């Protein structure tokens, strides 16, 4: 399994806009090898807000296929030259190989 994590820091009061953007249905759900996408909002505090977008893929190859797909690149070309929203303070992306995982196990008596 392979994971992509996007981290976005936005001005206070704008986290909902980013949660909405990443939570609405999109074309990524149709990409072969896509497993799921989870949007996390850091527990509310005063000041800037942090959003994490965790996207899990069956493999690094599936992720690379998405990153280089015409439909994905077309979306980026569409936004080329447009300024990012002013409320986004910073953003980053990292990718990881999943090397361990645990799942819920019911207690047996």
UniProtKB/TrEMBL annotation:
Residues 2-91 form the ABM domain. Coiled coil: none annotated. Pfam families: ABM. GO terms for molecular function: monooxygenase activity. It is an enzyme of class 1 (oxidoreductase). Keywords: Monooxygenase, Oxidoreductase. This is Antibiotic biosynthesis monooxygenase. Its EC number is 1.14.-.-. InterPro entries: ABM_dom, Dimeric_a/b-barrel, Heme-degrading_MO. The lineage of its organism: Bacteria, Bacillati, Bacillota, Bacilli, Bacillales. SUPFAM superfamilies: Dimeric alpha+beta barrel.
């Amino acid at each position: 399994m392979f994971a992509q994590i996007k981290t976005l820091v936005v001005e206070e009061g704008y986290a909902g806009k980013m949660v909405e953007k990443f939570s609405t249905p999109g074309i990524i759900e149709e990409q072969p090898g896509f497993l799921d996408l989870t949007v996390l909002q850091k527990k509310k505090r005063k000041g800037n807000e942090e959003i994490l977008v965790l996207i899990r893929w069956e493999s690094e190859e599936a992720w690379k296929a998405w990153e280089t797909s015409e439909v994905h690149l077309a979306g980026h070309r569409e936004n080329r030259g447009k300024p990012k929203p002013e409320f986004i303070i910073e953003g980053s992306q990292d990718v990881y190989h999943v090397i361990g995982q645990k799942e819920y196990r019911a207690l047996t008596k």
